[in-house]
TrEMBL record:
<feature type="binding site">
    <location>
        <position position="17"/>
    </location>
    <ligand>
        <name>Mg(2+)</name>
    </ligand>
</feature>
<protein>
    <recommendedName>
        <fullName>Inositol monophosphatase</fullName>
    </recommendedName>
</protein>
<dbReference type="Pfam" id="PF00459">
    <property type="entry name" value="Inositol_P"/>
</dbReference>
<feature type="binding site">
    <location>
        <position position="144"/>
    </location>
    <ligand>
        <name>Mg(2+)</name>
    </ligand>
</feature>
<dbReference type="GO" id="GO:0046854">
    <property type="term" value="P:phosphatidylinositol phosphate biosynthetic process"/>
</dbReference>
<dbReference type="GO" id="GO:0006020">
    <property type="term" value="P:inositol metabolic process"/>
</dbReference>
<keyword id="KW-0460">Magnesium</keyword>
<keyword id="KW-0479">Metal-binding</keyword>
<dbReference type="GO" id="GO:0007165">
    <property type="term" value="P:signal transduction"/>
</dbReference>
<keyword id="KW-0378">Hydrolase</keyword>
<feature type="binding site">
    <location>
        <position position="15"/>
    </location>
    <ligand>
        <name>Mg(2+)</name>
    </ligand>
</feature>
<dbReference type="GO" id="GO:0008934">
    <property type="term" value="F:inositol monophosphate 1-phosphatase activity"/>
</dbReference>
<dbReference type="InterPro" id="IPR020550">
    <property type="entry name" value="Inositol_monophosphatase_CS"/>
</dbReference>
<dbReference type="GO" id="GO:0046872">
    <property type="term" value="F:metal ion binding"/>
</dbReference>
<dbReference type="InterPro" id="IPR000760">
    <property type="entry name" value="Inositol_monophosphatase-like"/>
</dbReference>
<feature type="binding site">
    <location>
        <position position="18"/>
    </location>
    <ligand>
        <name>Mg(2+)</name>
    </ligand>
</feature>
<dbReference type="InterPro" id="IPR020583">
    <property type="entry name" value="Inositol_monoP_metal-BS"/>
</dbReference>
């Protein structure tokens, strides 16, 4: 949820259980996500933490202060090595879109995975556990990624995001967004190209193509 506290009007965006389906099935792939902001948009987030208790993993970032993993500063990754592991958000509300995109990734020789926890998937781009994260289906909630968004930005990753209610996306329970994050700009743009080629989705028109009404129709 979201809360405004104190005279300065700090906004706290909290998801107490990101990955609830995993949790119910006994999987360790779930997390608590907490973000603090000084305004009402995603760009106003100044601190964020993603905590996965069953994994013993805590990833924290403060604006302009870098990323910490279990209390230790995260060393920034270089641009060398392979770029082939892409986490894809696959909410049931997204219908067939993420699965069609995964097929396209596989056709390009990339490895597609879905963990079922958006905060962990996005934060994994920061830590190096993944090379990219894509959720461009218009169903992503702001509470899922408010903390991880700051974390991945502080890690130096390339990020592109679009909100349903505003740009930058608003810190509102009604906000839905699309996001692509990659550890390099080259990979990020390749993923955007695939979105356009395969699904006709481009940042700037995603909510015109994948509107709430269209999503509801696809699920009926």
């Amino acid at each position: 949820g979201e809360r405004v506290v104190g005279e300065k009007g700090y906004v706290f965006v909290i998801d107490p259980l990101d990955g609830s389906r995993n949790y119910k099935r006994g999987s360790s792939l779930f997390a608590v996500s907490i973000a603090a902001a000084v305004g009402r948009t995603l760009e106003d987030v100044v601190a964020g933490v993603v905590y996965a208790p069953a994994m013993g993993l805590e990833i924290y970032a403060a604006k302009n202060s870098g990323v910490y993993v279990n209390g230790r500063p995260l060393a920034k990754r270089g641009n060398g090595g392979s770029e082939d592991l892409v986490f894809v958000g696959a909410s049931p509300k997204a219908s067939f879109l993420p699965y069609a995109y995964m097929l396209g990734l596989s056709a390009r020789g990339l490895i597609a995975r879905s963990l079922g926890s958006a905060s962990l998937e996005l934060a994994s781009v920061a830590t190096g556990a993944a090379d990219a994260y894509v959720d461009a289906w218009g169903a992503m909630r702001i509470v899922d990624i408010a903390a991880a968004y700051l974390i991945v930005r502080e890690a130096g990753a390339w990020v592109s995001a679009e909100g349903l209610l505003g740009n930058p996306p608003l810190l509102s329970l009604g906000e839905r967004l699309a996001i692509v994050a990659a550890r390099t700009e080259k990979l990020g743009k390749e993923l955007l190209e695939l979105l356009a080629e395969q699904l006709g989705l481009e940042m700037g028109n995603i909510f015109k193509v994948v509107s709430p009404r269209a999503r509801a129709k696809s699920l009926s």
